[in-house]
Fold:
Amino acid sequence: MNKNVRKAVIAGNWKMNKTRPEAKALLEELKPMVADIKNVEVVACVPFTNLETALAVTEGTNIKIGAENCHFEKSGAFTGEISADMLAEMGVEYVVLGHSERRQYFAETDETVNKRTIAALAAGLKPIVCVGELLWERECNITEEVIARQIKLDFFGISADDLKKCIIAYEPVWAIGTGKTATADQAEEVCAFIRATLAKLYSAEVAEAVTIQYGGSMNAANAAELVSKTNVDGGLIGGASLKAADFTTIINAAENG
Ligand code: 13P
Structure:
């Protein structure tokens, strides 16, 4: 990452894991381990049912709390959904949007990701918007087309000022939960491409200000090399964020890198 212009953000995405007692135990364990971290924003994005517990346990610490999705309407007849305002009112700061698992299993589209991002920003949340290509798309050599399309659609109509409040997570779908990490060079190549795309759509200054994370089998062993790359400003971590020691190693790699 380029520490002169951006602060690294290491965010855990717990996905559908942890009961409330388990969430409390993990965050209690993590708190002292990351208490001295200065140069990295530490975030835990947790299931809706854990938000209140997570906010209470981390109050007054340097761990920020995020949700894993939100709906795009403010309120209404949307059974089972949670609005951005509901999250903001609780004190939640971040929200993961457009994760490939949401796109794959819950039929989310770039259009709904765009609407969710706009709703999250309007509520004062910081969206972590996920983009990434399928293995088949990479093999067909259309990674850049896929990513450019997602960036254009997911951020359509979003102002430069609002874009600067967003984090973009580059998560190649083939690397998620597979143990198959993109090489640091592959991650850098696409993160740099995302920044170049933002520079064209907005300006070089705006593009330089946006935090771009890598996600996909990032772990204690490979994090240092990934975050050493100029355009990789941290990570969105799945499995390894469920273990305090591994998550802390990743945070330290970003802090000291
Ligand atoms: P893993 O780190 O488990 O591969 O998950 C990555 C991810 O999807 C984070 O959002």
The radius of gyration is 17 Å. Residues 13, 99, 171, 176-177, 215-218, 236-240 surround 1,3-dihydroxyacetonephosphate (CB under 6 Å). The first helix runs from residue 20 to 34.
